[in-house]
Amino acid sequence: MNRKTAGLLLMLFALLIFVTGCDKLPGRGNKENATEAGSEKDADENTETVFAVSVTEAVTGQIYNYLNVNGDVVSKTTVDTYPDVAGKVSRILVAVGDTVRKNQVVAEVDPSKPGMNYAASPVKAAITGTITSIPVEVGSMVSQQSPIVRISRMDELQIKTYVAERFISRMKLGQQALVSLDAFPGKTFMAKVVELSPMVDASSRTMDLKLDFVGSTDGVRAGMFAKIKIITEDKEGVVKIPSAAVIERFGEDYVFVIKDESSVERRKVTAGIEIDGKQEILEGLSGGETTVIRGQTLLEDGSLVKVVQKVEPLPVKDSID
């Protein structure tokens, strides 16, 4: 092989290597593979997300609103009994818990002074009732302003409580209340508001109020601690749903309503009473419409959904636990 032929072969070999390398450069792959990859990408972009949700039906019925407060059971009538004279208590004729009748002698006070002896002066019960306190002892020196015994009517009990200033506008005479006492677990007593203080305490920013028991109070005693739910509103014919169905976005309330079992409509609503996991809807929703109660965090108007659970609607008649 002469030198000229060898040079020509070498140039052809170099050209072949160059062409082969260019085919492997980025972006110069097989056109068919590129087309298939593009088609898969387009298919992924056109596939919409389907959200799994739980739903329930809005109902038209009753809803309560109430205020929780604590209070004490007290006697409706409590009277302190005072002596007619100043002196030394010589006898106490009753004990705490004794039942006495009006004008019954409960103690005696000796008004005698050094060098001057007088007959003991009887102290008589001012009312019929039960002795709840004896703040003196035999030998105590008392005046006519010193209470000797305290008598209460145990058959006339009521509850004394107070409410914070911000709730005063919700309080009205005659409002019903549910009362529970630790001494009677599982039992509920009924009461009603009978007295509202005309003033607000300037130091505590609270208003005193009193409630009378309605019905039997067998076993209830003055001094018991009471947990009270005062019913401030009782509304009929309202649309209500679980509170979990309402979400807030940009300062406004929304619910997601099922349109055709596979998509949702985002709907703005006006919320009313919200209590114990129940929400009143004033505007934007009707009874019988199905709303999403779980899984709505990422939903938008028109989102595709799959209903995985249907929750029982709220009871038409409301109850207070």
UniProtKB/TrEMBL annotation:
Database matches in Pfam families: Beta-barrel_RND_2, Biotin_lipoyl, YknX_C
Any GO MF annotation of the entry: efflux transmembrane transporter activity
Matching InterPro entries: Beta-barrel_RND_2, Biotin_lipoyl, RND_pump_MFP, Single_hybrid_motif, YknX-like_C
Gene Ontology cellular-component terms for this entry are: efflux pump complex
Name the residues that span the membrane. Answer: none
Residues in domain YknX-like C-terminal permuted SH3-like? Answer: 238-307
Instruction: Give start and end of each CusB-like beta-barrel domain.
Output: 161-232
Residues forming the Lipoyl-binding domain are 87-151
Which family does the entry's similarity section mention?
Belongs to the membrane fusion protein (MFP) (TC 8.A.1) family.
Task: Fetch the NCBIfam families from UniProt.
Answer: RND_mfp
What name has this protein been given in UniProt?
A: Efflux transporter, RND family, MFP subunit
- Native organism: Sediminispirochaeta smaragdinae (strain DSM 11293 / JCM 15392 / SEBR 4228)
